[in-house]
Amino acid sequence: MSRRIWRSWCCGMRSRCCVVRSSGLGWSGPPPSMKAMAERLHCSAPNLTFMANQLADRGLVERAVDPADRRSRVLILTAKGRRVRDEIIRAAQENNPLGTLSTRELQQFTALLNRALRPGEHQKHLIRTSVQRVLR
User: CA-CA distance, 1 to 47, in Å (whole number)?
Assistant: First the structure.
């Protein structure tokens, strides 16, 4: 994705991080509730509502009733939202210095980071998730 397209798409967004973080909307399994999404994004419910409104206005997500709890809402990526998410991920991977490493090298790198940092479980999860995204 070119910088011009990226800037154009992000125009008006209060937090550019929400673009990348909300790309997680496409994970497998049932969509998470808005509450679970707010927790995952480390933001308040009103902030998530604000971001969801902006994404919905751009035709990138739709709100639906949570089948697991009809009192809750979920966000679902539209076809356009999936295309934009894929472009963002592709651009991030193309510009990622770890993208040149093989799968084996990434596994070694992760093991070394875990050993050097001795992180807690939450931090280990973040490292594994980052490396897995590069592998995709």
Answer: 26
Residues 105-122 pLDDT 10s = 988 988 888 777 765 666
Residue with tokens 């480390």: 42
Q: Is the dihedral of CA 40, 6, 79, 130 positive or negative?
A: negative
Tokens describing residue 28: 């497998």
Alpha-carbon distance of 80 to 57, in angstroms, equals 12
pLDDT in tens, 72-95: 889 888 999 989 988 888 887 777
- What does the DSSP 8-state code read for residue 67? T
Other CB atoms within a 10 A radius of the CB of residue 93 amount to 14
SS3 labels along 8-53: HHHCCCCCCHHHHHHHHHHCCCCCCEHHHHHHHHCCCHHHHHHHHH
Q: What percent of the chain has pLDDT over 70?
A: 72
Task: Give 62's strand partners.
Answer: 76
